[in-house]
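lol forgot to send this yesterday, sorry. struct tokens for the thing we talked abt
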């Protein structure tokens, strides 16, 4: 009950300072704490807040993937929790904050590699998704997907269905 009161008091004192994402996370945490109090299951070391915190952090990270400052520290600050609390919440799912960000950036880079609307170079894609350079992206991509970005592009072109030719009648 003490934890619930402390959290509610924090929201009361600092609610106006919270960003919309932070306010949502604080509300979700308050709801989870209230549920835990009713169930009599508040554990000060492993609260039931982790799933709500992780969902909110992932959503925020997804919106900031191109931000070079995106990190566990910036996410924790935006959500008004300690870095350790955020890391512990992610660890409950056997994942780290940094691993989540890296994986999401690799997924977006992979999507850009085969985007027919605008072919970017591997160097441009690396810069867009905050990899140090094309070599860094290539190494991370190979480790994650088992092939280099260039190999991935070639393989995706081979698997694309051929464009049907349109016969125009000659008059």
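and heres what i got for the seq, position by position
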């Amino acid at each position: 009950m003490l934890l619930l009161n402390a959290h509610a008091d924090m929201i009361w004192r600092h609610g106006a300072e919270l960003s919309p994402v932070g306010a949502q996370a604080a509300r979700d945490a308050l709801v989870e704490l209230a549920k835990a109090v009713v169930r009599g299951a508040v554990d000060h070391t492993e609260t039931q807040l982790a799933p709500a915190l992780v969902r909110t952090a992932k959503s925020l990270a997804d919106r900031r993937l191109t931000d070079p400052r995106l990190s566990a520290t910036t996410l924790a600050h935006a959500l008004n929790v300690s870095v350790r609390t955020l890391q512990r919440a992610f660890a409950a799912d056997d994942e780290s904050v940094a691993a989540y960000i890296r994986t999401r950036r690799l997924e977006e880079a992979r999507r850009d590699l085969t985007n027919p609307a605008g072919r970017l170079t591997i160097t441009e894609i690396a810069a867009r998704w905050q990899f140090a350079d094309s070599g860094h992206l290539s190494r991370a991509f190979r480790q994650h997907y088992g092939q280099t970005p260039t190999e991935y592009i070639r393989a995706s072109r081979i698997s694309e269905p051929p464009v049907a030719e349109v016969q125009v009648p000659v008059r």
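The chain has a mean pLDDT of 82. anyway ping me if u want another try
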